Amino acid sequence: MADPLRSRSTPGRVLVALLGVVALMGCAPGPATPPTLPSATAGPGVPSSPSPPNHADLTRLLDRLAATDDEPGWRALIDSVDPHFATTSLWLRDNLAGLDLRLEPGSRIRALTAQRQELLGTEAFVQEVRARWSVPGTAPAEHTLWLTLTPGARGLRLAGITDGPCPTDAGSGPLPIWWLESVRIIRQGEVAVLAARSQDPDAWLPGLVQAREAVARRVPTTEPLVAQLPSTAGGFERVLGVRQGSHRLVAAAAWPFGDAAQLVVNPEAGGATQGEARQVLLTHEAVHVAAGSVRGQGPLWLTEGYADLVALADHPAVAAAHEANLADDQRRHGIADALVTNAELRPDNARVHAHYQRAWITVRVLDHGPDSRPAPGGGVADRVHAAVLTGTPLDDALAAEGWSTGTLTEAVSAELRRLVG
Fold first, then answer.
1. What kind of architecture, by CATH, is found in domain 1-14+172-296?
2. Which of 19, 268, 333, 371 could form a disulfide with 248 if both were Cys (CB 3.0 to 4.6 A apart)?
3. Which domain of life is it from (predicted)?
4. Is the separation of the CB atoms in 72 and 150 below 8 Å?
5. What is the number of other CB atoms lying within 10 angstroms of the CB of residue 138?
6. pLDDT tens digits along 109-140
């Protein structure tokens, strides 16, 4: 995507029915919680500029939060005046025990609402924190978190994690699943899954392992594949850091979190995450993670078509269904005489499925070389895709393989005519 949201909303991976909107942490309760108090915004009687904490005290608390996994030591860091957070803090401790984590102070602080101050005290405040975290042995992800802190005789203590900006606020952003709900972390070889307790990560692990293996055959990668599996569609959007309701139809997304990219699954995706469709979905998104195409280099027809080229290679029945659907579309609307545009691949485009299939056909034609037969040594699409992602202009990358935009367009149109019959 031009922003990272672009095509990880892969329309071929989009749900076919509207899903209910689930409340998100920070503005409404998370899983299995009572109603929370309003999020932090300045109002009558609320100080607009809380006093900055002592930097040494703050750093000391953050270091201890990141390193403490024994219950007595953890409880000493928690202000339990809010009974809901006293419970939340226990699963948070368990989550952190499975991670490599580093917390550093950010520069911003926020005031609490008057209602929250009444509960936590007038000196309580919300502190920005930069988190760098990973499942051990995987690439570290980066997030901005907001911690509600209270000062006291024993120093700062953690009093909440849901008083930060709402998803619609300018200061909002993605949040890791382990900050939103209790998780189980499992690992097999080069795949790790962080799953909500209501989900079964063992049901996803084999498909993710298979996806990474399929990708590794074409995309050089040494990084493990990390997947997050929230409990709700609302949690899925909160992990992505997108507007509530905007991605409710997206089945899965490859998403950048700092320097690392991870795969996030929408648990309410229905049929899009069943059977062969699930495997194609996981492999497609794993291509984006491994290749680094989540950051938006190159035209979408290339990045999305290439991901489908890899994902469909082991699924001839699904590929045949794509061909049939595309042929029907071209009969009704006419043979396309141009390469697929980014606008055609927007999720709200009425023909988005066919346009994604046309992008796949485009890359398949590209991969065969300009003579319409497998190029010596193969890998034309691999090389063009990799070159564009590393900054080579598309025209130059095509020319290196004997293609031009014009000749590729003509060859794709010929292939579409063949499919139409």
1. 3-Layer(aba) Sandwich (3.40)
2. 19
3. Bacteria
4. no
5. 20
6. 999 999 999 999 999 999 999 999 999 999 99
pTM of the model: 0.84
Token pair 């972390």 is found at 185
Q: Where are the domains of the chain?
A: 1-14+172-296, 55-164, 297-421
Decide if 52 contacts 109 (C-beta within 8 A): yes
Q: State which amino acid sits at residue 42.
A: A
For 55-164, CATH number out of 3.40.720, 3.30.450, 3.30.70, 3.10.450 equals: 3.10.450
Q: What type of residue is 68?
A: T
Give me the sign of the Cα torsion angle 73, 78, 84, 88. negative
The distance from CA 139 to its chain's CA centroid, rounded to whole angstroms, is 15
User: What whole-number distance in Å separates Cα of residue 307 and Cα of residue 363?
Assistant: 9
Q: Are 129 and 147 in contact (CB under 8 A)?
A: yes
Residue type, 166: C
> Sign of the CA dihedral 261, 262, 263, 268?
negative
